[in-house]
Amino acid sequence: MQDLQASDDLEESLGQKLGGCSLLLREMSTQQRHRCLNKERSLMTTSIRHLVLVLGDQLNEDAQVFLDFDPLQDAIWMAEVDEESTRVVSSKQRTTLFLSAMRHFAQNLKRKKWPLVYSQIEDPDNTGTLVGELTKAVQLLKPQKLLLTAPGDWTVLHQLRECAKALKLELVLLDDLHFLCTVRDFKAHAQNRKQLRLEYFYREMRHKTGLLMDGKNPLGGQWNFDHDNRGSFGKTGPQHLPPRTCFPPDPITKEVMDLVKKRFAHHPGRNESFQWPVTRPQALEALEDFITQRLPQFGQYQDAMWQHEVWLYHSHIASALNLKLLNPLEVLQAAEVAYQTGHAPLAAVEGFVRQILGWREYVRGIYWTQMPEYLELNASKANTPLPGFFWTGQTDMACLKDAIGQSLEHGYAHHIQRLMVTGLYALLLGVKPQEVHQWYLGIYVDAVEWVELPNTLGMSQYADGGLMASKPYVASGKYIDKMSNYCKGCQYDPSKSTGTDACPFTTLYWNYLITHKETLSKNPRMLMQIKNVNRLTETVAQDILQQAQAHKRSVNA
To answer: What pLDDT, in 10s, does the model give residues 508-521?
Structure first.
């Protein structure tokens, strides 16, 4: 009776914290229960060896922090906190994904009977910050050392380092094995280079991994097939599209969805359509479905858009990759096998491989070698506020209405919608790049700062002045007309830059070139566009500038 009373007292004292044992006590035999209680008494009364910190985007059991994990002398810490959804306002879809995936990962740890300190966001004593929750856990467990996989957010890393310093604890930072290039290796690649360019880095990574290689040469005799991957759907539109791979919410996800709708009621977007993978088995199913159903057409149509068609031939696995539910190497190898077996053409497979092996690793290297200064870059001194319709989708521009609307509904838009619709408009309008960054980071389910920030400030907004990309990605409304059917039902004419029916993209495009002509004329890749600007008469140029200013005033009225 004393043992049973002691177990009840201990379980009450620990609450729901040490889930590796406490939450399972009632399911154990008496002997198992006694062993578990003895272990928890030890954790409560003596210093544990390692407290392993697991962040919301580190949901992989093959992480380095677990290689030497001993459940008899180590424990794991995870925390849901308001701060991670409010520091940059996070959409309902994004917050639902992170919380649900974290809770599913914690459930797996509990099944393994690994000691787990887990703070739920709705706990009455939750401090709302990572530092506050970690401080509480350290005071409870008194660890000798903290272990952490390198995080994907500079601010989080800085906060945890300062917290460990204040607690007088060593924080051991370990490489994230879910990347194929370490930050050290990227720094070595970048050293003594006048310019950083993806193409050279990408070739190094192909040599390093052997992916799509024939000895020392690329398969097919060329490094990339970008010119083969720019197809549009034509007048008939996409035919026989495969359905999205959906994962209906289970009880854990449903509970999180309700929580998010109540706790973050005023945050952007909706989560009623939530169907994202939140576990590793689901992520593997999403990967297999992409390889089987969409990869063969992905290359040709990866830049194409079509109104009301959200999913097309894209993979939809970026969120699973960035949560570490998938390893990039297994994804790349699956794509390579699709080529080797004749299931998918080389152009499609290479285009997909370049996104993950090249671009994904490249932007991470940019982030960690340039932060924290990178966050404040604004080469064009853009300072226009982000238009309010980015939070509602209520605009009369058909392409923006569709791209923003689906982003709010699903927390998703594919890369061309982000780069050449929402991003292009913000760049041409002259929106302050930090506001664009915060919108992308908060809205999209796959957004973690290491990948989102360089893509937004560098690739999309050219705010780093060419550090990451060789030119600003600017185009008129004619590009959108070529790659989609958005313009067919729109009140604006993409061929016109002035007049009541002129496309704002086209007006703003010419305005951008005129305004930044002196700077852009120094860029060899912009010379053709600058020649076209020089052909404009003074009258036409002034009309464009006036119409652009009128449009800017109207969207920020």
So the answer is: 999 999 999 999 99
Residues 6+ apart with CB under 8 A from 353: 211, 212, 332, 335, 336
CA distance 533 to 55: 49
Q: Which residues lie closer than 8 Å to 432 by C-beta, 6 or more apart?
A: 378, 382, 383, 384, 385, 386
C-alpha 99/C-alpha 257 separation (Å) is 9
R_g (Cα) of the chain, nearest Å = 26
Looking at residue 16, its amino acid is Q
Q: Are strands 213-214 and 116-119 parallel, antiparallel or unpaired?
A: unpaired
Place of tokens 């040709």: 300
Distances (CA, A) of 369 to 135, 191, 467: 29, 11, 12
Share of the chain above pLDDT 90, in %: 88
Length of the chain: 557
Using an 8 Å Cβ cutoff, are 529 and 513 in contact?
Answer: yes
Identify whether the C-beta of residue 412 lies closer than 8 Å to the C-beta of residue 310: yes
Residues 524/526/532/535 CA torsion (nearest 10 deg): -60
Span 320-337, average pLDDT: 98
Identity of the residue numbered 174: L
User: For residue 502, what are the β-bridge partners?
Assistant: 493
Q: Is 75 helix (H, G, I), strand (E, B) or coil?
A: strand
Average pLDDT estimate for 68-75: 96
In what order do the strands lie in the sheet containing 145-149? 116-119, 74-79, 50-53, 145-149, 170-174
The alpha carbon of 205 is separated from its chain's Cα centroid by a whole number of angstroms, namely 21
The helix or strand, by DSSP H or E, that contains position 12, with its residue range, turns out to be helix 2-14
The Cα–Cα gap between 371 and 184 comes to 14
Which residue's entry shows tokens 């699956």? Answer: 334
pLDDT tens for residues 387-428? 999 999 999 999 999 999 999 999 999 999 999 999 999 999
Task: Check residue 46 and give its pLDDT.
Answer: 59
Non-local (6+) Cβ contacts of 205 within 8 A are: 180, 181, 211, 357, 358, 361
Token readout for 351 is: 């285009």
Residues 6+ apart with CB under 8 A from 383: 430, 432
Rounded Cα distance between 393 and 87, Å, is 23
Which domains are assigned to the chain? 2-174 (3.40.50.620), 183-370 (1.25.40.80), 388-555 (1.10.579.10)
Residues 6+ apart with CB under 8 A from 192: none
pLDDT tens sequence across 184-234? 999 999 998 888 899 999 999 999 999 999 999 999 999 999 888 889 998
